[in-house]
Specification:
single chain; mainly alpha; two-stranded antiparallel sheet; globular
Amino acid sequence: MPSNLDGVLNRLVAACEAPDDDQVSVAQIQRVIGERSFGPMLLIPALIGLSPIGAIPGVPAVMAAVELFFAWQILFGMKHPWLPPFIARRSIGATKLRRAIERIRPFARWVDTHLLRSRLTWLTRGPFLKVIALICVLVSLITPVIEIVPLAGIVPNAALAAFGLAVTAHDGLWALFAFLSTLGSIYLLIVLL
């Protein structure tokens, strides 16, 4: 199971090496990342929401739905992420995925070296993992409302990405940052209502 961003990217590259038809399915990606890895499954949609693609109307809401899907599974005590077959069969070109990975690899290595550590690990395990999942559900539900304001989806996606990093690297400091970003998301919701 990967414990940092570079580890996640290495597993994604491994998925790109396997296919014969230059397509990598979501099921293959899940298999190589690790079927017990909820952290990357929370992290990847949030990073998409934070990327320039996330500025497209509707994308933050779709990524929030994916987050919601995995956060509920954590709350219900599932041991590994489950994907419905119609999602598991979806695929992306292996060459395209490999190029995207190589573009973000320097950033991932910088984050791993400078920002991620195994600290305050108790904030990312046991009952605290359920608390993280519950907050991810809350943030995922308010993201579509916040998205009404252009680029406001950055705040909840930052919280979701920080939770994904915290769970992936067992870095409780990122969980604390995510809690603060969640407060910012709630504030934005209150202002909009």
